[in-house]
Amino acid sequence: MRVNAIGPDYIETQLTHDWWDSQTDPQAACVATLALQPMKRIGQPQEVAMTAVFLASDEAPFINTSCITVDGGRSALYHD
Questions:
Q1: Measured between alpha carbons, how far is 79 from 41 in angstroms, rounded to an integer?
Q2: How far apart are CA 40 and CA 1, in angstroms?
């Protein structure tokens, strides 16, 4: 049995857009979010899905009890 986890950061989902839209200035909230990202963009759902497919594949048979962070490098820069 293998048990792994995926730890995404900001991913462009409807929830992300809803959060931006709930702010006083949605455009400024989006810009602030992008400014936090080393890659100057947020992740896409398919990028998280590709990580899940990799973990479930025959290419990752010895990866166990790991959390793969999918954050475009943000965790290397910020520890908040």
A1: 19
A2: 37
Instruction: Give pLDDT tens digits for 52-74.
Output: 999 999 999 999 999 999 999 98
Q: Coil, helix or strand for 67?
A: strand
Enter the DSSP assignment of 44.
Answer: -
Give the pTM: 0.83
Burial grade of 65 (CB within 10 A; 0-12, 13-18, 19 or more)? exposed
The residue segments making up the domain with residue 71 are 5-77
Domain count, the chain: 1
CATH code, domain with 27: 3.40.50.720
